[in-house]
Each structure stands twice: as structure tokens, then as C-alpha cells.
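Example record

The entry below shows one chain as it appears in the dataset: sequence first, then C-alpha cells.
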Amino acid sequence: MKFTQKKSLGQNFLIDQNILNNIADIGKVGHEDLVIEVGPGSGALTNKILERKPKNLIVIEKDRQLSNFLLKKFKEKIKIINEDMMKISYENFEGKNHIIFGNLPYNISTQILAKWIKIKNINIFCKKFVLMFQKEVADRIIAKTNTKSYGRLSILSNWRMKIDKIFDIEPESFNPVPKVRSTLLVLVPKNNFYNLKDPKNLEYITNIFFSQRRKMIKKPLKILFKNYEEISKKLNLDLDLRPQNLDSVTYYKICELYEASIQ
């Protein structure tokens, strides 16, 4: 059975066998592990994961043509969910400590990551994520304070995840060949993190700060708090600093105070 790759779904399939083996090894899949693979494409990584004999493997593929291809290729070895990965309620999956693999479509990679981060019991649901991103997006996820790439995505991602960069992947490792490099990251949910009432508040706050990242932090603080000077003293903030100068922990503290102020 043949299939046609669709640019609209960001279908660039990894074909380098050495890299596929490395990714499966990094996942450290064992016989008792429950595995979810999002965007399996033609099943190249799926095959490597199955070689490690997980207890269960679920693949999520939006493209019906590809879902049928995978069903014919792997039969009862996998369970296929033919659905949009953004529309699935991951909280409804049975079991815990899943390992999630994903070569995420470039156009929705940040949205799907944000969706996972917001899962209420993410540290129970998932043991680790082994995810491939466009390099520019990965750089934003792992960016440190006072760097050009540091911003909203860095702050949200590091709120509930410990993140390690594994390696970059050249365009020639894919078919069709994309115009950009990719990066493999491993994200492990944290057990201890700032207990914010609603992640949307963190997104709202960082949007206010980084929508004018060259401006001093006095302006966004004034938008968020009537008593902004009191807040700045409480957090020992220099109002002449820029948004990229504040570390992620400071943003979590700002969010806590903001949530308390809107009760």
C-alpha cells in the first residue's frame, strides 16, 4: 500500500536508521512500559520501538491514509488512534508512567507541548517525552535567561519539565528534506513545581511581558497590579530591567501573586 505525504500536515519522515535507533534507545523502553507515539508517519520509529518489546504501543495519526498503511504494516502489534493529536484528552488514557515519542509537525509543535504541560497530573501520566522539534523552537524551549531566544515558551516549558537537549538532526535525515534542522529533546515531568491555579494565567502574564520585550518591566507590572511598586519590592525587582532579564522562577512568583490578587 502506497501513501502520499501531505505538506499541510508537516509530514517530513525521519529515515536515518542510526538516528532512529538512537531515539528508541534514549527512550529506554522496557517490557513493562506503556508507549504513545504521536505522528508516527510511515512507522520507521514505530518499528524500532516495537523491537524493544513494550507492554503496549499506541500511535496517534491524523492522516487516515497513513493510519490504514500502519494498520496493514503492524496489524495487532499496535493500537492506532486516527485522530488529531491536539483534540485528544490525554488524561483519559489508561495506566500511568507512559513514554511519549513524537516527531512533532512544525506548525503545531508549541501548541501540543503547551497542551501536555497543562495536563493536571502530568508527572503521574507520563514518565518522559522524547520529542523532535524544529531547531529554532527547541532553542526557545531550552533558552536561558538573558538570551535572545528566552521568552514565553522557555518559561512555560520549564515550569513543569526538566529538559535536556540530546542532539541536532540534519535535514538530509528526512524525506522529503526540510529546509531547517531539527533537535531532539527529552522532557521529564517534575514532581515539585510552583502550584499555579491555572496555567493560562502564566501564559497571560508572559504574553504581557514579552509582547514588548524591549520595554522595562515597570509597564507590564503596572498592567497586572495596581500596587505594582509594592509587588516589585516584595520580589526585589529592579523596574529598569527588561523581560528577558527575569528568570523563570520570578515569573512563577509573579503569577502566584497575580492569582492571589484576582481572587
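Notes for this example: The radius of gyration is 20 Å. Residues 248-261 form the longest helix (14 residues).
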